[in-house]
Amino acid sequence: AGQPFDYRVADLGLAEFGRKEIRLAEQEMPGLMVLRDEFRDTRPLHGARISGSLHMTVQTAVLIETLVALGAEVRWASCNIFSTQDHAAAAVVVGPEGTVDEPRGVPVFAWKGETLQEYWWCTEQMLTWPGATGPTTIVDDGGDATLLVHLGAEYARAGAVPATSPEDSEEFGVLLDVLRRSIAERPDTWTTMADGIRGVTEETTTGVHRLYDLERSGRLLFPAINVNDSVTKSKFDNRYGIRHSLIDGINRATDVLIGGKVAVVCGYGDVGKGCAESLRGQGARVVVTEIDPICALQAVMDGYQVARLEDVVEQADIFVTATGSRDVITADHMARMRHQAIVCNIGHFDNEIDVAGLTAVPGIVRDQVKPQVDEWRFPDGHSVILLSEGRLVNLGNATGHPSFVMSTSFANQVLAQIEVFTKPDQYQRRVYTLPKQLDERIARVHLEALGARLTTLTKSQADYLNLPVDGPYKPDHYRY
Ligand code: NAI
């Protein structure tokens, strides 16, 4: 007998282990479980076809099963070649009620260690709905699914996919190949799909940048909700999640003692703040690099040295990029580093560290220590240890953020999905953030789970501050 549905994961036999970890995670994800309870009967996502491109971890499994509990049909892929937890992927395919022989869960296309060709194949499968034109909504993390649909529709309308140029990254070249093939097979695939999409909800800073670019240039094809800039997302996941998962990645990769070392954190936004605190917590002396004087001043006030990378590159032991920019650490920098300096990136894409440039250094030798840990030996004998080939270290070398903080992020995702799916008339082709009431509500649920007791405004205090007793408590311009 054929499979009841198509999927591709590493090993369905890992499903039982995955299910056990999902069960433990559910207890740690009160935001998602409260939403399951609240919407179990009304099922606001009934009829939704959700395509998700977001790291296929245990926490994401709880998100996926929440979307299903709210009535949606779901297809999923990871948004990074190294970030899938294979046991979580297997458990989602099998589903809470299925068996390995008879999976009854959700089609997942993801495994740890995909090639770039496999990555875009998985993304395409996740967007392709058997018997339907495509998804009704997208959950995106970094914007790759949104990019594929937008470029596909754009090239299909123009009647041609541009030739791959030598300037293009290998990754972009593969994406162009996918579009060339799919448009040749079915010219209207991407335009029809784009027309059917009610909206995308975007998880991360880098994806949000891409969305605002599309909006500004008038090319955004459907409404978008910026989940990242919910306060209960970026001020928690990007910061406290990173504080946990950065050193988790470095430890699992290298087990080097962080105390007493000099660590450079490039970028002092939300993620950089979490990185610096994480490394300082282990006793490292942290140096921050920044381009923005405000963030640089924050770093100084927090007690970190602020310097230029070129001035400290010979003195540091650990380098972390957290900028969302490109070419922050170059091959020239790595040529000047100490022997066995650890180099890693925690920003969304792998171009923060010039890995292509490193590979091209004449006479350089790559020696793989274990998967996602490579020693690159320069001709002069010194080496650098590059983690996850420059892809996000917390998801490549460890398991990403822990459940509790992902519960705050994913509660925003679920509410954003309900918004775009159930209110298609209220959203234009623009980028929106969720209202502050929802943000405060998500925080409230997580406070309760931690046993914290919030103070309630008295009526006279509320009148004095001109605030509703039940919130929202801050104006939209407040920065937290
Ligand atoms: P952000 O915009 O708050 O911070 C980035 C900072 O880098 C800014 O302050 C900017 O001024 C600075 N910067 C830019 N170019 C620089 C350069 N050349 N040198 C030094 N500093 C520079 O962004 P956020 O939220 O901190 O995110 C950073 C990256 O991390 C993004 O790519 C985001 O998508 C990703 N991210 C990764 C997560 C993970 O789990 N690995 C979780 C959340 C976000």
Automatic annotation (TrEMBL):
A single GO BP: one-carbon metabolic process
InterPro entries, sorted: Adenosylhomocyst_ase-like_sf, Adenosylhomocysteinase-like, Ado_hCys_hydrolase_NAD-bd, NAD(P)-bd_dom_sf, S-Ado-L-homoCys_hydrolase_CS
tRNA processing listed as a keyword: no
Record-listed E.C. numbers: 3.13.2.1
PROSITE patterns: ADOHCYASE_1, ADOHCYASE_2
Enzyme class: hydrolase
S-adenosyl-L-homocysteine hydrolase NAD binding domain segment(s): 238-400
Annotated cofactor note: Binds 1 NAD(+) per subunit.
Similarity comment text for this entry: Belongs to the adenosylhomocysteinase family.
Protein name: Adenosylhomocysteinase
Gene this chain is encoded by: ahcY
